Amino acid sequence: MLHDVTLEGHGVRLVPLDASHADGLAAFVDDRVWAGMSSPLPVGPAAWREEVARAQAAPGRVAFAAVDAATGEVRGSTSFYDWEPRLLRVEIGHTYFAPRWWGTSNNPACKLLMLTHAFETWGCARVAFRADTRNARSVGAITRLGAVPEGVLRSHRLAPDGTRGDSAYFSILPDEWPSVRDGLLARLGARGD
Prior knowledge:
Layout: E1 7-9, E2 12-16, H1 22-26, H2 31-34, H3 45-57, E3 62-68, E4 74-84, E5 89-97, H4 106-121, E6 126-132, H5 136-145, E7 148-158, E8 164-172, H6 177-190
Parallel strand pairs: 5-6
Antiparallel strand pairs: 1-2, 2-3, 3-4, 4-5, 6-8, 7-8
GO molecular function: acyltransferase activity, transferring groups other than amino-acyl groups
InterPro entries: Acyl_CoA_acyltransferase (IPR016181), GNAT_dom (IPR000182)
Organism: Cellulomonas biazotea
């Protein structure tokens, strides 16, 4: 869905994903970056413009481009999705970053911004995350955020090659948020950001 939410801090800006980000995404997203996604890998700027348009058109999805706050370089993308304002629940996902940002402060900064918005602006009662169980990097990143594992939904995902995979589910609830926030702030402070 189209939105005007912009979040900034710790060296990153989350801005509404739009067609102007397609070239930046096309420059680094490959099979390694796209691993674990349930849609085919977009290849080339035209395919990325279509991917961005699909993200913008998806009901309940608030898609962001993650850009370097100082240079404007496109670092990747992340989204709120399955946003249910009446139920005060949302999921965070559709996340992919350029490999040069893996293992840096980028993901903790993006998730701190998003979780702060979800809990402190929207008043969410639940923020969930899910990842294909075969994607150890994503499962590890979610675990490091401090999200609580809830279980595995078997044969829940359909990969672009037609194989089925399991989804590991995690969540954070309002009473857990202060501890998660403090952990993310400590991770960001330890890096000097």
